Amino acid sequence: MPEYNEDQIKMALTAAKDLAAAKEARSQDSPLGQAQISESSEIQANRRRVENMLASFFTKAGFEVDKFDELLAQNQSALRRIGEERKAEAVKRSASRKETLHYAVKTRQKAIEHLVDITPPESPAGATAEFYELLDLPYSIWPTPGLFFDAHYEPVNTWGKIQLDSAKANGYEELSFYFPWANPRDAYAVIDVDAYLVLNGYCQVYSGGGMLPGDRRSRLSVIPRLKLWENTLTLVPPSALELVDENQNGVYLQVDTGGLWESGVVEKEEVYRGYDLRRTLFLVPPRQPVVFEVGLQITYETTETDIGRVFHVDFASGDFEVLCPGVLIKIVS
């Protein structure tokens, strides 16, 4: 493919993502969206007034509210300790799980290399024979600012280590591996794209509980996904068109302790598996560059912003990692 520097690619993709974010923001600024936000705020204010009335009633009736709060705080401390113990156990298992996952990647890689070896690296225009091309090293790895980040580049063994700790009401983070490619022909090419992402990590969500009914909910989603970007490097000013967003279920955790006399809860999930992200019959114009973005999307939201850390996502401790062995392109015609 033609030579492009990292700054060109990054500038084009950043411009495209900013445009997508602006479109989403405009849709949220609609009158209907504003009405929903206003209604939610009104409901929350009413709920707080009811909670204050009930707390006053229980206090006058002789209920030891302070004692309950003390027990609740002790329970919350115990839950956080349990969460740390669970994570420590997962970290101990991370090395053996990494070994198993890497063995699976090597086995898969041998089959892919055989496919690539028996097909030519380029077919003349008009040829109909299928052949394969392997992109085994990303051009770049980009994390969003809210993540702790470390990375290692190596063919078939490129990984990123990320960690998130948050007590914010909501957030969005992502880690992305970018693989540029260009159609080598003077004719249109139809391709199938097969990207592989391997996760070895630990996720946790916490809810504090409470004496009275209330809105105490937290939700975390970790999604492996494949995006294809077209026109990334050929337009001036730099721009890009997001054509495909292929997602798979990774981790989904949700807790709700909004009932009466609810103690806190901590939910966790260990994830150690590979995800095969595919897109078939994608049409690429002659000599046109595209960018394959393979990555991990993290979204979270909570109504509990006064209890400290609610969300913990760890793909960094021990042998935890997000591994991206590469992208296999099958040129169909």
Tell me about this structure.
The chain is α+β, with helices and mostly antiparallel strands and 333 residues long. The protein has helices spanning 6-28, 31-60, 65-117; strands spanning 131-135, 140-143, 148-152, 158-166, 170-182, 189-207, 217-230, 241-247, 251-256, 265-284, 289-302, 311-315, 321-331. Strands 1, 3, 4, 6, 10, 12 and 13 form a 7-stranded antiparallel β-sheet that branches. Strands 2, 5, 7, 8, 9 and 11 form a 6-stranded antiparallel β-sheet that branches. A hairpin with a 5-residue loop joins β3 (148-152) and β4. It is elongated.
N-to-C series of helices and strands: HHHEEEEEEEEEEEEE
Distance between the termini: 18 Å
Q: What fraction strand?
A: 35-45%
The total of beta strands comes to 13
What's the quick description here?
This protein has 333 residues and is of the alpha+beta class. The chain contains 3 helices and 13 strands.
Which features would summarize this protein structure in a list?
333 residues, alpha+beta, 7-stranded antiparallel β-sheet, 6-stranded antiparallel β-sheet
SSE inventory with pairings:
Layout: H1 6-28, H2 31-60, H3 65-117, E1 131-135, E2 140-143, E3 148-152, E4 158-166, E5 170-182, E6 189-207, E7 217-230, E8 241-247, E9 251-256, E10 265-284, E11 289-302, E12 311-315, E13 321-331
Antiparallel strand pairs: 1-13, 2-5, 3-4, 4-12, 4-13, 5-11, 6-10, 6-12, 6-13, 7-8, 7-9, 7-11
